[in-house]
Amino acid sequence: MVDVILSLPEILLKKRNGEELLEDELNYFVDCICKKEIDRSQIGAMLMAFCLRGLNTKETVTLTKSMMNSGTVQKWDPTWQTVDKHSTGGVGDKVTFPLVAAVPLFGLKMPMVAGRGLGHTGGTADKLESIPGFQIGLTEDHMRRSLEEIGCYVTTQFGNIAPADKTLYSIRDITSTVSYPPLICSSIMSKKLSEGIGSLVLDVKTGVGAVTGSYEQAEGLARMMTEIGAGMGVETTAVLTEMDTPIGYAIGNSLEIIESLECIKGKGPSDLENITCAQGAVLLCGARIAKTQEEGEEMIRKTFQDGSALDMFLKILKNQGVKRETLESLRRGDYDKVFAKPKYVENITSKTSGVIEAVNALALGKATVLLGGGRQLPGDEIEPAAGIKLFRTKGDKVQEGDILAEVHHDGRLSTALRARIDEAFTIGTSSKPIKRVFAVVKAGQDTEDYEVYRKRS
Q1: Residue 456's closest CA among 292, 287, 279?
Q2: How remote is the C-alpha of 250 from its chain's centroid?
Q3: Is 408 a catalytic residue?
Q4: How far apart are alpha carbons 401 and 342 in whole angstroms?
Q5: Is 187 a residue of the active site?
Q6: Range with the lowest mean pLDDT among 83-97, 106-120, 222-236, 321-335?
């Protein structure tokens, strides 16, 4: 029988020596954090020991579960099928909006906790708040009624969600331990699984605009999170998607909501629709509502075509404070009556003829932040109308003088920033089409090419 050590210095020594920590030992470490019975230097030392000596899957699952249980964990009607999605973040990533418009139509409940933007990736909460009247902060009673009556809500982190993670993250930030994959995964999953969900689809992005630059890094992150989910009894599937190029044509808060509405109406960019259908189908198959991935995709796509997704999305907005006049304008597509207008709209034009070989998502995401459409520091004010509207994307042919993009701003478009946006477009002689969805990752299974998966499943 292995002895459990419940002394912080001895637990630190054990991990420093590369030994596996037991469940009670990790729980004790997290409990000491919550009770403030541990010195910050000890937390930093433990985090560094995790990074240098490693956490195996069992330890990572235990740490995640303990972090989750350090705060509020939502409990819903046991007869409900509760699902959610999480994206690792990208540029022009607006998949959440058409997804929440479609998935609840099939009887699934989506209790969604959304984040705010920081850095070059935009935040779901900020985008929704560009709609006049939308209330992102909800009471627990409002959340429960929303699931009962509509099937979905979108709110920001509330109450006492994973407080241990807040402490750990603040110290990770100053001890150079932010980038260690098990700590990234435990932080994400402890908060996401506190929603009380039974099924989760992860959108793990790879490319220049993603937090994981290489495909191998993205696959590793996806595998670790699916293993954590499985270890905690939540059916978890990761979809690996491309983030070299912005999704769709809109970057910026109100611009992305407008494009999302067009997708919900069946008139949006094909790449946005395809990613949404892929993720929605994963959830429908997991709930045994769709028999195959292809069938699930078509079920999601049909909601955009028949108007039911639009009705659902407007119900969600009404439930969270948006007035009837605004809802009717959104339904009609009278967006100028709803959204704040930029002071200036300036064009970026092509200096040569050819084919667009690349549109650098990271460069355009950073440019949008500098235009006021995102935050460089927590607490920065957001300019909802600021952003970039693409007229051309990767694979499109262009002639000299063609408009590549519109820049919406309040006066912050400097000469240097304009040059940065212009340089984000690489024009040459040929280009491969964008492949948005690469593969599917599930715990205990080999990574599978998406086209093979959708035809097989």
Answers
A1: 292
A2: 16
A3: no
A4: 24
A5: yes
A6: 106-120
